[in-house]
ABC transporter substrate-binding protein (Streptomyces antnestii), 290 residues
Amino acid sequence: MERHAAVWEFTDDRGHVAAAADVPLRVVAYIQAGATLWDHGIRPEGIFGSFHDDAGADPAKAGALPLDEVRYLGAGAGLGLEAVLAAAPDLVVAVTYGGGQVYGVDPEVAKHLEEHVPVVAIDVGQGRSLGAVRERFAELARSLGARGGGGGLGELECTARELGQAARERPGRVLALSPGGPDSVHLARPARWPDLSALTALGVRTVEPPEGPGANWNTAGWAEAAALAPDIVLVDSRVNAAPPEQYAADPHWRSVAAGARLLPWNPELPASESAHARFFDQVAQALRDG
């Protein structure tokens, strides 16, 4: 396709220009991106997962996506070029954590994919604020014909104010973690996660784990998690996190669970106003109930 023939263009967060002769109608997306587009009223033709995912779609990442209606194309090494192209997409929407890498797709597959179909990658990594990620997805959605911001700006502004008020009135300590198994837990560094950084900016007392290796997480034992004495714990609910039965008997975890309010946490939250409003509301309610 000649560039001058394009009537739709979008410059993604890698600086790549995706172009098409018409506004794309058939979109295949990484599950987080697909859930975001769904909130904007755009139905993805298919979705795919990451190297951390199983053969089936992770419901924790799916947001409001109807997983029984949207085709799942695979994840990680199980996601081949043929599977994506079989969905006949006009556009592939992915995410990136910087460095130009299309997340969840084998680099060789990603390279050949862009030879066949436009690919847009939105940066959801540590260098972006939650609002910036949300706006980039909104820009993309608007270019595809969506209207509005994905659920209502008024609702988001209201829940942000309520969360700020709850944080002032009931200043509980909030720790985010991803269970690693019976002997390990990954403690999130708040500044590295757009959603946790947003909580901090609204006045929530997010807990910083000890210094050590690991850019996004501090990997430690359950004793270290207990020592942080959180009032609220955001527990990674994705399928790649260790299931509760692997660590439920640990005395340090039992101490955490006895002293804190536990909330499910999706570190790959859909980047829409409605999803962010629900997240803020959930934390605000936990602070009030604490």
About this structure: The chain has a mean pLDDT of 94. Residues 14 and 78 are 25 Å apart (CA to CA). The domain at 153-289 is CATH 3.40.50.1980 (Rossmann fold).
